Amino acid sequence: MAGLLDVILGYDCNLACDYCTITPAMRERSLGAAQVVAALRQGRADGLDRAAFTGGEPTIRGDLLGLVRAARTLGYDDVKVQTNGLVLGQGDNAGRLAAAGATRLHISVHTHLEDRYEALVRSVGSFARMLAGLDAMLATGLPLVVDLIVKEDTYRGLPEAIAWLHDRGVRAVDLWFVSLTDHNAENLASLPRMTAVTAVLATAFAYARAHAMTLRSLHVPRCLLGEDHAHAFDPGAARVRVLTPDACFDLKASRLAGQQQVPACRGCEFAAICPGLRPDYLAVYGDGEVAAARGQAPTIAARRGLPVI
Question: CA 82 to CA 8: how far, in whole Å?
């Protein structure tokens, strides 16, 4: 069975995003090149045909190009690199990555507003560097996906961000719902209610459809997206093996995946394909939103000081 090997090379990064789940201690941990190549070999032996290099920030590693070449040499048909783009805007780094064998690129843009971007990543002058990276990645001609973070201080601007990206030549965007895990576990203020976000998402989805853009929403259950449910995307639905400096596991077991269906999910038309809600979200807001969407009473109360709707 074909599938993806998602390699988190290390947790270190050249930015310090205010919602990042990586702790200072985690930043010290990384995989050695020999470990990565061994995992790539094993993945091919197990039938995996796609590879992804993520982090942290993979482009700050001097061996990234060699690892991309190794993946292609071993027979991976698709090799993705996930980056914040800052390094790829320098010199011909984006072109070198493409020449090494990368077939697909993802860049984390977070938000289209310069002041909010630099406050979010906590690095003055980084917005211009990110834009240079974005333009360089587009210039390679490789398939490119932009990642936007859905959090309390960004979600209201999503429709404008989608239009801004379209004007720059971007045609595919993934929307990641902020996670309250590890280093971001106590940042409750960053987590909006999904029912507040979905009204804004509807406007963004409509724009994307009208402009031939691919717009996918991660972590928001289909029942809350309503007529826009086709935009839901569950990375764990496919076969994905994740290799980190700490462990190797199936993505379905990750805390970042929606992995808990609630009683109201029973009988839902999407129950067979929807993973449910993440436990960190349930801990803050309970299951009231999903229950209401299904015409039922909530059964899971908030456990972190916020009321059930």
Answer: 10
Q: Which of 199, 227, 228 is nearest to 215 (CA)?
A: 228
Amino acid at 155: Y
Quick one: tokens of 183? 């280093």
Q: For residue 308, give the amino acid letter.
A: V
What distance in Å separates the CA atoms of residue 167 and residue 38, rounded to the nearest whole number?
42
Residue 3's SS3 state is: coil
Cis peptide before 43 (omega within 30 of 0): no
Beta strands across the sheet bearing 78-83: 232-233, 214-218, 172-177, 144-150, 104-110, 78-83, 50-54, 4-8, 240-243, 248-250
Enter the tokens of residue 287: 């299951």
Domains of the chain as residue ranges with CATH: 4-256 (3.20.20.70)
> What would the pLDDT profile of 129-165 be if each residue is shown by its tens digit?
999 999 999 999 999 999 999 999 999 999 999 999 9
Question: What's the rounded Cα separation, in Å, for the pair 265 and 213?
Answer: 30
